[in-house]
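Question (not urgent): is this output format expected?
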Amino acid sequence: MVEKTKKTKKLRLILAVGISQDIDYFTENLSMLVASGMPIINAIQAIGSEMKTRLMRKIADEIVEDILAGSPLWVALENTGIMPIHTISLIRLGEESGKLAENLKIAAFEQEKDRIFKSKIRSAMMYPVFVLTLTLIIGIGVAWFILPRLAVVFSQMYIELPFITDILIRFGSFLGKYGQYAIPAFIVFLFFLIYFVFYFSKTKVIGQIILFSAPGVSRLIREVELARFGYLLGTLLKAGLPVVNALNSLESATVSPHYRKLCNHLTRSIGEGNSFQSSFANFPGIKRVLPGPVQQMIIAGEKSGNLAETLLKIGESYEAKSESTTKNLSVILEPVLLVIVWLGVVAVALAVILPIYSLIGGLNSSGGNNKNQSPAPSPAQIEVADVEKTETALENKDKKIEILPTGKGSLNVRETPSLDGKIISKAKAKENYVYKTIKNDWYEIILADGKTGWVAAGSVEELK
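Got this back:
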């Protein structure tokens, strides 16, 4: 039964993301109706009947059933699993101290603040996510529809391609054959990668660490966490919650692993009787999560007895800073995003332009040499090492080809009749070679050392 209740709470916490505004509405209106003197059960039933979502109406009915069964309000709310620990702590403290209406109002205010903090991070991430998503979509479109056609064009040039172009052409050929399977598989893989890095409970700490290290975003997260730290801890202390309980509640509300670790350390250290000053001194890397001035303010507030008010001022100050950072984040991230997009565009441009430039430059150079220079030297002499090679040459003396001019000044001779064949030699333009056979638009020629190799038919002319 306990295990089932835990699973239900986890499921409710996931579903509560979509009804966060209904939860705020429920808490705010419950505080007003209780303050007006209406019984809790009647107030919950009245609010539940106005809820738009079916899930929230069901939750309201469950709360009423638990209260009728003898459970206090905070226990009934805890069983629903839709409210964080710090909100439950405020409501419990309000019930026990007779200030339920006041604490419900504070809880509603804190829920609103928490939603604002989270929305700031989401809105700040919209711009980079949009740019990167659009870049990814365009990149997939180019790779899927254009690269396969370029692969066909470049394969017919019979020239030695630059390394970057060769990789691009191979990738384009692969997408041309298997794109209908590879692209959907890549999108599904990317979706699961994002889910496991940023949303899955056991691994999302990786995404949080990445965001905490990202330029611009890390600053915003730090300011939001400091604002949450000040507001929540100050509010809980002002409501009368003990420091250790308040820190424990704050730990559950904290998103960043760095600040969750800080809250856990402070809970243990202060629970052992240490002050904030000594607790800060014993935490490694404290300046990364709490700037020196913030530490001094908290220490001074603890010594003067105004810790709650000091924390609220810290929250107010960093909320204003986070507001400014959110507005300027797009300006901070824009150079980084431009560099990422620029690198992709330059890589594709170089891969496409370099072979075309080499081909045109080679043709122009060949044309200029034909005008100002004498014809190429006489055909190459075939040197044979033994009688068998000599006989082979004599048998094929009527089967000759001439190497046509290329952009590189020579033609690759390959081990097999394919562009993927290993290059074993170079055949210079205007030279004549005896060939043995023709296979798939490739000529098998006899080289000077008696060995044979293959040259593409499109770059040679058969002599009669």
